[in-house]
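Colleagues,

Please find the record for the two-part complex below.
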Amino acid sequence: MARLTFRGGVHPYDGKDLSKDKPMKTIIPKGDMVYPLSQHIGAPAVPIVKKGDKVLTGQKIAEAGGFVSAPIYATVSGTVKAIEPRRVVTGDMVNSIIVDNDGLFDEVEYTPHNPEKLEKKEIIELIKEAGVVGMGGAGFPTHVKLSTKEPEKITYVIANCAECEPYLTSDYRRMLEEPQKLIDGLKIILRLFDNAQGVLAVEDNKPDCIELLSGLVEKEERITVKALKTKYPQGAERQLIYAVTGRAINSSMLPADAGCVVDNVDTIVAVYHAVAEGKPLMNRIVTVTGDAVNNPRNFYVRIGMNYNDLIAKAGGFKTEPQKVVSGGPMMGFALFDLNVPTTKTASALLCLTKDEVSASEEGPCINCGRCVEVCPGRVVPSRLADMARRHDEEAFVENDGMECCECGCCSYVCPAKRQLTQSIKSMRKTVLNNRKNKK
Amino acid sequence: MASILKVSSNPHIRSKASTERIMQYVVIALLPTTVFGIFNFGLHALLLVLVTVAATVLSEYIYDRCMKKKNSIGDFSAVVTGLLLALNLPPKAPLWIGIIGGVFAIVVVKMLFGGLGQNFMNPALGARCFLMISFTSIMTNFECDAYTGATPLAVLKSGEGAASLADMVIGRTAGTIGETSMVAILIGAAFLLITGVIDLKVPCSYIASFVVFILFFSGRGFDLQYIAMQLAGGGLMLGAFFMATDYVTRPITKNGQYVFGIFLGIMTGIFRLFGPSAEGVSYAIILGNLLVPLIERFTKPTAFGKGRKGGARV
C-alpha cells in the first residue's frame, strides 16, 4: 500500500513501547469528581443542578450554553458538593461542578437506537445531547462539525487514527480492543453524508491495526483503510486531509471546504455510544506514561477523575518527575499542579524525569533552515519568531504567521534550542485577541 | 509532591541537534583537506593553520571579555572560521598574515555585527578578501618547496600548457592550503551530506550553473578536459561545499538557495573567464552574501493551502 504523507514534519523518539502492549484497564473512581464547565471550544456549559442535589451516573448536570457548546454529564452518583472555580490543565481557573461520589454508581437508564432507522437530524441531535466533542485535544463540539452547510458536498469522512504524538497509545489500544465500535461509529457519521466515503487513516507504525481494521471493513462498501507514513504531525487535521485527499486548506478554511470531515478515534467511538447505545460522553482512554511512572499503561477513565488518582493507579512515581504533561510531548500542556480533573480532551498524562526544555539553553539563530524544512505550514518559523519578539504584528500577519498550527516541529528541531513555537504561539494569541477586540 | 514541576510552552522534547555539534561536524569534515594540505605543503602549513585558528578563537574570547558578553567560543564557530581562513591562505604565507586575517574575520566581520548568526558576510571569506587587497603579493604567491608557483587555473588561463588533471583531482598542485585536493574536499562534503549538516541545493545549483556558464562563454565549447579542470582547480569545490553552504550567509528559503547557487555559478564564471585573475570563488560568494536579504524577500515560501494548489478541489 502506498504510504500517504505531507511535506515537512519530524521523527522524534516515540516512546510508545512503554504502554502499547498492555490492555486498557478500567478505573473505579473514589472521592470527589470535578466537572469543569468549559471542556470544549465555545460557550461554557450552564449548570442545571445546585448544591445539595442528588445526581445519578449519566445524569445531565450542565446544559450547552449555545450552539457551539456541549452539555456535561455526571459520571458517578452522589451529591453536588459545590459549584466553584477549580484549576484545569491549562492552568486557568474554570467554574466547575463538584460531585461527592457515593461509590454506588447508580445509573440512569439509556435508550439504545438502531442507527439505520434514525433520521439525519435525529442522529445529530443525539450526538449534541450526548455532549460529544473532539477528543483528540481541540474539543470542538462534534455536532457543529457534522452540521455542515452542504452535506452532499462532503466526499470524505476521515477517521483520524494517526496518533502521531509520541508516547500516546490510547487510540492504538482502542483500535485493537474495540475496532467494531470505531467502524460502527464511522458508519453512523457516513449516514449523514450520502456522497462520502469513509477512510480509516492509520500511521504505518501500527501494522496490526491496519491489518485488523482492513479485515473488518472488507465487506463495507463505503469504508477503506489507508496507511499513512509515520511522521509527526501526520494527525494534524490539515496535514491529514492533504495526505489522504491531496487537498490543501489554509488556516481560514474548514475541512468542509475541502469536502472533508475529520474525527479522531475516541470521538467516533463516543458517537457510536451516543447514537447506538444512547449513552452520553462519560469516559475516555488516557495514556499514563513516561519514564517517571512505575507501570505505564492505558486506563479507561471516567471524566472528572483527579490526575493524582491516575498516577496512583499507574503505580505512582518511580522517580520524582521534573515535568508532567497533559497530552503528548509535542502539543500537550505542562502542569504545575497534578490536582486537576480529567476532561473530555485529556488524552494522556506524560511524566518525564528530565525536562529537555529547561536543560537546553537558548543560543543565537544560525540560520540553518531546519525549521523551514520541517514546518508543515510552510512558513519561515525563525523569521516569524523574530517578528513576534519585536512585537511587529503587521509583519507577522503579512508573513503568514497565522498559518502556524503550533505543532512544535520548529522548536523541536532547532539546534540553537530557540523557543520558536512559544514566540509564534503567543503572537498568534495577541493577533486573535486584537481582532476580537476590534469587532 | 515535594519538588516543583517545571512548566513551559509546547513542545516538551528537543532533538539532539545542537549548534556545537554542527560546528564540530564541519571541523571534522574539513580535516581530510587540512591533513592533505599539510602533507602536500609541509610543516609551515601546519603552523599557519594552528596560528590562524588560535587567532580566531582568542580574538573572540577577548572580544567577549572586553564587551562583557557571555563567552561564546564554546560553540566552535570560531574554530570553523579560523580553519576555513587558514585553508584559504597560500602555504608559505607568513604567520602574521594568519593572525591579522583571523582577528579581522572575528572582530570586524563577525563580532561587530553582533556575533554568531548576525554577520552578513562569511567571516573567513571577508578576511581573505581583506588580505588579498591589503597584501596582494603575499596572498597571490603560491611558490613553495614542492611547486614552482603558478596555480593550475592560472596556467589554464594563460593558455600555456596545462597541469595534469589527475594531479588536480588528487591535489598535487600549487594553491592555497586547503583548496587543491578535490578528493579530500569531497570526502569531507560527503560526511556533511550524510550527517545532514548541509544539503545539495546550494552546491549543486552553484556547480551546475557554473558549468553551463563555462559551456557557453569559455569559447571552448564542449571541452570535457577543460570543464573538469575548471571544476577541480581553484577554490570552487571548497567554496561550493564549505563556504557557500555557510548557514548564516546563505538564504534560509529553499528557492532562495537555488537562486543563490545559480548567482554564485554565474559570478564565478564571469570572474574566472573575464576577470584579471584566474580565480573568482571568494568574490562571487561574498557578493552573493550581500544579496541574501533581497533573495529571501523574493523567494518567500507560499504557506500551506495558500498557493495555486490551495483551497478546495472538490
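The first strand of chain A starts at residue 25 and ends at 26.

Comments are welcome before we finalize the supplementary table.
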